[in-house]
Amino acid sequence: MKFLIGLIVVIWPVAGFLYFKMGFAPVATADGTMPFEGWAARTSLHVRLNREMPRSVPIQPSLENYTAGAKIYKDHCSGCHGFKGQEQQPEVKGNVSQAAAPIQG
User: Fold this and answer.
1) Which region, left, alpha or beta, applies to residue 2 given φ > 0 means left and ψ of -120 to 50 means alpha?
2) Nearest partner of 16 among 24, 26, 6, judged by Cα
3) In this predicted model, what pLDDT tens digit does every residue of 60-78 receive, in sequence order?
4) Tens-digit pLDDT profile for residues 8-45
5) Which of 4, 63, 95, 103 has the smallest number of Cβ neighbours within 10 A?
6) Cα torsion through 74, 80, 81, 82, rounded to 10
């Protein structure tokens, strides 16, 4: 049994090292994810969110608070993010020539 455990303890790190050293790891943007990459990212994200999530809501849901939030969004965010059903603005798409063109009509 000790031999089997020792074999696993030695082979696992060597296999991992060779996986990267011999170029089997997916590194191009078109490649898929690495084994266990999605699991590791999700696990870390959920632990971090649970640790940092506020335990009480600082702003209570009310009509006044929703209205104030909508005004802030309209004034400061809608230029880039737009509204539901609205087509994306040219400057957000990265089309500078259309963004610089004067408004027609």
Assistant:
1) alpha
2) 24
3) 899 999 999 999 998 988 8
4) 888 888 988 998 899 888 888 888 888 788 888 899 99
5) 103
6) 60
